[in-house]
Design a protein that fits this description.
alpha+beta, SH3 type barrels, Alpha-Beta Plaits, 11 helices
């Protein structure tokens, strides 16, 4: 039995050494399970309260899987360390040990950046909590955008570290080469970069929020989403249009969703044969109907003025500011108001004007054309 245990298995490795390495692997498995179980129980013991963020829970969740990977890669590397000496060549090189070390280093690097990647969720939670406390819907888009940017940055740096471990290329020259390549990419993708910076301008300047109605150039609709490249607007026709963010920041944006009121400006024309007292009566009727009207604001009283002589009508200008700026509520009020004006005008015998033209014909007994001829003595004698 003793001879079998001390006997050679392969490459000069004894069975006792293999059993010892197997025992070390078993210790690694037990250690990983213990740490995993401790962290899991700690997570489960943290009370869950609605609306309350547990930073410790988020931190432990971020640590759980990367720590398991870290224990596995370095634990296996350490457990097999007694065997590496048997693969050393006469020149002193040990290819097996080199590969094992590289695999362990790469696994450890992946575990580290995996933990950092998961740790971004802590920042995400803080940003989401901050965004929920603000009135701006754009902040709700800004919060995940910061998290996504950090995750991309961590992945890029992690990939560079793994590449350095695999190839031995130093990080400094690699970054320099990426800078030169980045310049070429920037020149080739300048429109995309301009759109990305346009996105940042929209998010920080906040000319509009998701859900608000805006007019950009000839597009009138409701903002549905602000993306990395473009902003999507649902037009009043129901069509969905995507506008590059670079174009938005260089264009005028009319934010209808932020208006404080809806202004109604109209001109009511009455016929030219309306006497002055009835013109005054018409102005009084409209003013009376609009006095203390629905949606009135004390700082914006209605304005009614007889202000001009049009080609075919006497003009009465009406200006009303409706609060709050609810379009369909305002339309319902406007309908009832216009019907009341029509009823009151009809009862007072005031007629609305419409485009018309009056022709005076010679020989019309109702509108005689008077012609006078001068008969002075000088004209008769021709002098």
């Amino acid at each position: 039995m003793g001879k079998w245990v001390s006997g050679e298995a392969f490459f000069g490795i004894t069975w006792i050494k293999l059993l010892f390495c197997l025992f070390l692997l078993f210790i690694v498995v037990i250690a990983e399970r213990i740490f995993n179980r401790i962290i899991t129980r700690k997570i489960e013991s943290i009370p869950t309260t609605e609306g309350v963020i547990s930073w410790l829970r988020i931190l432990l969740n971020a640590l759980l899987k990367p720590l398991s990977l870290f224990i596995w890669v370095y634990g296996i590397y350490a457990a097999l360390s007694p065997l590496y000496v048997h693969f050393q060549m006469a020149s002193g090189e040990n290819f097996i040990h080199f590969i094992a070390q590289k695999v362990a280093d790469i696994g450890g690097t992946v575990a580290l950046f995996w933990f950092l990647y998961e740790l971004v969720s802590v920042l995400d939670a803080r940003l989401v909590r901050w965004a929920s406390g603000t009135e701006s819907n754009v902040d709700n888009m800004l919060a995940p955008l910061v998290g996504k940017t950090l995750r991309v940055f961590i992945i890029v740096i992690g990939a560079m570290m793994v590449l350095q471990n695999l190839t031995g290329v130093k990080l400094g020259p690699l970054v320099a080469s990426l800078g030169i390549g980045g310049l070429a990419v920037a020149l080739a993708a300048k429109d995309s970069i301009a759109n990305f910076f346009g996105t940042l301008t929209i998010l920080f300047d906040k000319p509009f929020q998701v859900g608000e109605r805006v007019v950009i150039d000839t597009y009138d609709g409701t903002v549905e989403k602000v993306g990395f490249r473009s902003t999507r607007i649902r037009l009043l026709t129901g069509h969905l249009v995507s506008i590059p963010n670079e174009k938005i920041v260089n264009s005028g944006v009319e934010n209808i969703g932020k208006r404080a009121n809806i202004r109604w400006l109209t001109n009511i024309g009455i016929t030219y044969d309306t006497p002055p007292d009835k013109v005054e009566k018409a102005v009084h009727i409209i003013s009376e109907i609009l006095e203390n009207h629905e949606g009135i604001h004390p700082d914006f009283p209605p304005r009614v003025q007889f202000n001009g002589f049009n080609d075919w009508s006497l003009n009465i200008m009406v200006v009303v500011w409706y609060h709050p700026p609810d379009y369909w509520m305002m339309q319902a009020w406007l309908q009832s108001t216009l019907l009341e004006i029509m009823r009151r005008f009809a009862s007072e015998g005031i007629e609305f004007a419409f485009p018309s033209r009056t022709l005076y014909l010679a020989g019309d007994p109702n509108r005689e054309v008077k012609v006078s001829v001068s008969t002075t003595p000088a004209e008769i004698s021709g002098e």
